[in-house]
Amino acid sequence: MEAIIRPDEEAAALLVARIIAKELRANPHLVIGLATGRTMESVYEWLVRMHRDEKLDFSLCSTFNLDEYVGLSPDDPHSYRHYMNDHLFRQVNVDLRNTHLPDGQAPDLDAECRDYEKAIAKFGGIDIQLLGIGQAGHIGFNEPLSALRSRTRVKALTPTTLEQNAPFFGGEKKVPRRAITMGVGTILDARRCILLATGSDKAYIIAKAVEGAITAMISATALQLHPRCTVVVDEAAAGQLQGADYYRWIFENEPEWEEFRGTN
Ligand code: F6R
Questions:
Q1: Residues ≥6 apart with Cβ < 8 Å to 218
Q2: What is the pLDDT at residue 58?
Q3: What is the pTM assigned to this prediction?
Q4: How far is CA 158 from the centre of its chain?
Q5: How much is the pLDDT for 264?
Q6: What is the best residue among 9, 38, 40, 168 to mutate for testing ligand 1's pocket, by most ligand atoms within 8 Å of CB?
Q7: Which atom, in ligand 1's list, is nearest to the CA of 39?
Q8: How far is the CA of 197 from the centre of ligand 1 (A)?
Q9: Is the confidence at residue 263, as pLDDT, over 70?
C-alpha cells in the first residue's frame, strides 16, 4: 500500500482523476470500478472537465459500481444509478450500456449478486477500482465483520452508515436498511485500487485503515493485502497518520509520481 498526501481536497481529487485519466488514455477499453458519495463528487467534476477540455474519451470503457441500495429504482433520485448518471455518465461520452450497477429491485437479490460477479468476470475483471471510506471503515458497503474474502451480496447497513447517509435522504429513517455491495474479495480482485479520503472526519479511520492491524471490523484494512493500492488523502484526512513525513517524501521523490507533481 502507498499513501499519498495532497494539500487539500481539490488537489487530492485532481490527483485521483489524473490517475484514472492516465489509465484510460493508455487503455481505452479500461474497466473502471466506481464509487459514489460526497468524496467522489469532486473526482467526477474533474473527469467531466477533462472530457470537455482535454477530450478524455470514455466511449470504449466500461464501468462497474461498488453498490446500490436495495429497493430503490434507477429513477429514484437517491439511487446510486441516479447519482452516477447525474455526476458522470450523462456528462461524458460513456456508452450507458457499458455502465453497470447492481439492480436493487431485482426480484431475486442473491441471483442478482451472482450475476454481477459473472458480469465483472465477463468483462475481464476490474482494471482500476475507485474507493471511498465510511466513518466506520467500510469500503463499498462492507460493514464491520464483513468477511475479507466476501463476494457481491446483500448487506444490512450499520447505524453509523445510516447516520452518515441520512442527510441525502432527509433523515435516518428514510435511508434503505440494506444494499447490494461488491464483497471485500471482489474489490481485492481489481488490478489496481485507489482509495480517496478527505477532511478531518476521516483522519481517525484513515490511520486505522492504513497503519492499523488487518481486521474484519474495518474492511478497508484488507487493502493492505492488495499488491497495488494507493490511498490518496488531503492534509486534513492525513492528520493522524504516523508516517505522514515518509508518505510526503514518497510523493515528492519517487519517479512514479513525477508527472503528477506541481499541478496543484
Ligand atoms: C459508495 C461507497 C461508500 C462510500 C463511503 C464514503 O459507493 O461505496 O463506501 O465511498 O461511505 O462516503 P462519503 O464520500 O460520502 O463520505
A1: 136, 137, 144, 205, 208, 209, 212
A2: 98
A3: 0.98
A4: 19
A5: 56
A6: 40
A7: 14
A8: 9
A9: no
